[in-house]
Amino acid sequence: MSEYDYDLFVIGAGSGGVRAARLAAQLGKRVAIAEEYRIGGTCVIRGCVPKKLLVYGSRYGGEIEDARAFGWSYENVQFDWLKLIHNVQREVDRLNGAYTRTLEKAGVERFLTRATVAGPHNVTLADRHTPITTEYILVATGGTPAFPNVPGSEHFISSNECFQLDALPESIVILGAGYIGMEFASIFAGLGVDVTVIYRGDQILRGFDMDLRDEVAEALRDRGVDLRMNTNIASIEKDEGGFRVALTDGDEIPASRVMAATGRRPNTSGLGLENIGVELGKNGRVVVDAYSKTSLDSIYAVGDATDRANLTPVAIREGTAFVETVFEGLPKAMDYSFIPTAVFTEPEIGTVGLGEEDAREKHSVDIYKASFRPMRATISGRGEKVFLKLVVDAGTDKVLGVHMVGPDAAEIAQMAAISLKLGATKTNFDSTMALHPSVAEELVTMRQKWEPPTPIKGSDAAA
Ligand SMILES: Cc1cc2nc3c(=O)[nH]c(=O)nc-3n(C[C@H](O)[C@H](O)[C@H](O)COP(=O)(O)OP(=O)(O)OC[C@H]3O[C@@H](n4cnc5c(N)ncnc54)[C@H](O)[C@@H]3O)c2cc1C
To answer: Which atom of ligand 1 is nearest to the CA of 34?
Structure first.
């Protein structure tokens, strides 16, 4: 019998923590987990799941309009925000219950309180005095929204509050143009809210392939979203109708709500890690090796707390690899290659592998692009467009990246990820039979290499 109360104590019952706790308990280990908010974590309670449900909700307006051209008619189409939010929260509650039951069934002891680390083998719970001893500690505390420091920053809401608004705002200013900001810009625009996005950089969605960024920016502008680049929020003041948002370029925007989507930071402050010698990096991220081990042998960390690739499937895979490494004797280093990613804007992005700019840093590349109207738009008349792009290593013929903007792009990127992981070449893509009529068939029928436009000789001199 071990000298410790538990074999494993997990701090944080989100995607990574729940997976690790369940798997370790199923191996017969004595496992406990602490959660200070709600079991399920960010993804289930206030991230991926409720967001995707809002995305669905926001798309119906356009689809109902499209349906008219397909012969449907109806009157008095109305939207009820509270009904949507209520139904989304009902699903969140169901998942919260399902995650709780999963832990219960596996025999994981649950503490619904905040936990801190008191030593290499010690955890303290906020609601009791007796310290807990454990052979291993897994830090799976996730991330939390980071707010910029401007006068009036107390008026910012984050994505967390967007899931609980008691009324749909008439207008919203969103600071930040990363994927969370752009997804909410798209959701609110789809629900009829007047949306302005403020971003200090040149273009939305930094880090994605430039063509994808340009395509989505153009589509959002077409849908009426006011994208203001190269500016920032100087201050926010409350007034009778809502808020007045002053920009650094001198402009002022009235808004019913002001959202900060300015990134997330690892949720490690006050956790006690630095006091016992666990190395923390930028913004408080827990520094770990390829096996998710921290600078102390008994403490591991997974998920957003380590700020590696902040996505749910990654946190889950890291939790699984931790259990295999520590409790099954099968050391499993994480592999972060070819992680498919989506941005659930309307139109949505699906992407896997290297974008053109990143690929060009290390490879000589061939680029293939296609842009067309999806078949349904020929009847609906909607100005939607599909964009597809392949980034291919010119030397080895390997496909380095598959990028798409358009309907079902996320689903397509997931399948494309399998072929890229297997090392598929452009020749393999070309020899794959097309599925007709589909949007994705274009991925296997692109034959013409894209050439950058040649500058007209002497044009500079003429200017
Ligand atoms: C709006 C939004 C949309 C997103 N959309 C997507 C998406 O579409 N796809 C995708 O893959 N990812 C998405 N993500 C990211 C995804 O949610 C995270 O990457 C994932 O949840 C990380 O899991 P985790 O286990 O590291 O942490 P989390 O799921 O954040 O769980 C950490 C848990 O620890 C708890 N906790 C923290 N400190 C303590 C403490 N001291 N004691 C006790 N409990 C504590 C927290 O309350 C939380 O429940 C989104 C995130 C947001 C915010």
So the answer is: 43
